[in-house]
Amino acid sequence: MSAAFTEHVLGATGLRVPAVVLGTSGIGRRLDAAGATTVLHAAAASGWSTWDTSNEYGEAEAFIGSALAGLGATAGGTAGVAEDGAVQVFTKVDPVPGTGDFSGARVRASVAESLDRLGLDRLPLVHFHDPERMAFADAMAPDGPVRALLGLRDAGVIDHLGVAGGPIGLLRQYVATGEFEAVVTHNRLTLLDRSAETLLDDCADRGVGVLNAAPFGGGALADDDGPVRSYHYRDVDPVQRDAVLRIRAVARAAGLPVGALALRAGNRDPRVAGTIVGVSSVAQLTQVTAWADADVPDDIWPELDAALPDRAHWAGELGR
Q1: 58-104: per-residue pLDDT in tens?
Q2: Tens-digit pLDDT profile for residues 180-205
Q3: Does residue 319 lie within any of the structural domains?
Q4: In-domain check, residue 126
Q5: What is the total count of domains within the chain?
Q6: Deepest of 24, 76, 78, 118, by most Cβ within 10 A of its Cβ?
């Protein structure tokens, strides 16, 4: 079995997730139905058993629903739960597009839309997505989105509740409520940024499962020799650029692709159950699987730690 599909338990949820989880943002936003079906069917056939999506990822949920229907009995039935090689789907609730409405009523509608598109009757894990879009107090209000999600969990519509976002300090606030069973953090557990360390400690203390996303920082840590232009949705600063060049030099000396090191950086942390990697082609599926299977020597990590930029160049506790 590929190392990409080695399973770990996601905190106290009991859900089992592979080391590499399929991210579907690019599939939903860049591909047409035929292209998406090709990639999703190839993912299922190759062993990618857990797919991460969102209400706002373009057509991703509809494409996934169609793919699951085409996979039939291997799609995990109506629950979308991974058993005997089936596919499990994790999704996220989002505001009304263009309005910012993230009320409790909107959350219930978002989940209903996801169920309909995915063709499922319940969801194993739903994340409160990008909570930085509203004040913490409003999110936790009696008629707010978190209470709505808790009600859906109590009703058996969703099995487990997570939070997925950017600012580490804010995610720590949600974890501290004791209501969340899983977290998705992005761009903050990479070869260039370790801002998520405090969040991972909190999650370990509380039995909260962690999924790490965007291990390549938008591409800067997936390219062996191209220009270094951006990291984490913004232009790189000179310190980050120099760090990427040092990381590439370490990778070349070891005869390894930078992408393999970037993927392993998060997966080697015992506090992380799996890493979400967005793909939008069969070639990318193959490449990421190969990166996961690369033989990375233990003695390379001190060199990569030495290349890590100073924390002043990380996203930090409050960065978006």
Answers
A1: 999 999 999 999 987 344 434 444 444 589 999 999 999 999 999 99
A2: 999 999 999 999 999 999 999 999 99
A3: no
A4: yes
A5: 1
A6: 24
* Closest among 196, 125, 208 to 166, alpha carbons compared: 196
- Contact predicate 27/65, CB 8 Å: no
- Which residues are CB-neighbours of 229 under 8 A, at least 6 positions away? 220, 235, 236
Residue 85: its pLDDT value, please? 56
Which domain, by its residues, includes 106?
3-313
Q: What angle do CA 50, 58, 265 make, to 5 degrees?
A: 45
Q: 42, exposed or middle or buried, with CB in 10 Å at 0-12, 13-18, 19+?
A: middle
Q: How many Å is the maximal CA-CA distance in the chain?
A: 56
CATH number at residue 113: 3.20.20.100
Residue 297: count of CB within 10 angstroms of its CB: 8
pTM strictly above 0.85 = yes
Please tell me the distance from the alpha carbon of residue 45 to that of residue 97, in angstroms, as a whole number: 33
Token reading at 276: 């979400």
Q: Where does residue 142 rank: exposed (0-12), middle (13-18), buried (19+ CB within 10 A)?
A: exposed
Q: Which two tokens stand for residue 57?
A: 């990822």
Write the pLDDT tens digit of every residue in 5-54: 999 999 999 999 999 999 999 999 999 999 999 999 999 999 999 999 99
CA distance 239 to 215: 19
The SS3 call for residue 211 is: strand
In a domain, 214, yes or no: yes
* Helix axes of 33-46 and 60-71: crossing angle, nearest 10 degrees: 50
How many Cβ atoms are within 10 Å of 233's Cβ, its own excluded?
Answer: 12
Q: Is residue 53 part of a domain?
A: yes
